[in-house]
Amino acid sequence: DHTLKRYNGIDVIFEELSECIPSKDTVEQTVENIELSQAVNRWLAGLKKKDRVLFVARYWYGISIKELAERSGKGVNGMTQLMYRLRRDLKKFLEKEDLI
User: Fold this and answer.
1) 74 and which of 45, 78, 83, 88 could share a cystine (Cβ 3.0–4.6 Å)?
2) Residues of the chain whose pLDDT is less than 50?
3) How open is the CA angle 5-7-12, to the nearest 5 degrees?
4) Do the Cβ atoms of 69 and 75 come closer than 8 Å?
């Protein structure tokens, strides 16, 4: 409910558009997806540039840990640990934002 209050009226907009752009998601799911996306972007913006680039390369572009390690000059174990720490940090951030 609090999600919909923040986007007062957006449900009407999505309902109007649903005739043109069908979606399996409900209005509430769409709003939650928008909130999650915005939160992830805020979290990414707070990272050091090198960590942000590596995280996006791994989880947006699907680049392997091995390739990221080679590109950055780190070992595979070090890169694996970095990705784990970043995921853990993202999870804590999303919990703090009450999104998970």
Assistant:
1) 78
2) 1-6
3) 105
4) yes
Give the number of other CB atoms < 10 A from CB of residue 82: 20
pLDDT digits (tens, 9 = 90+) for 62-78: 999 999 999 999 999 99
Instruction: Tell me what pLDDT residue 2 has.
Output: 47
* CA angle in degrees (0–180, nearest 5) for 9-45-82: 125
Long-range contacts of 36-44, Cβ-Cβ distance < 8 Å, separation of 24 or more: 36/94, 36/99, 39/93, 39/94, 39/97, 39/99, 40/90, 40/94, 43/89, 43/90, 43/93, 43/94
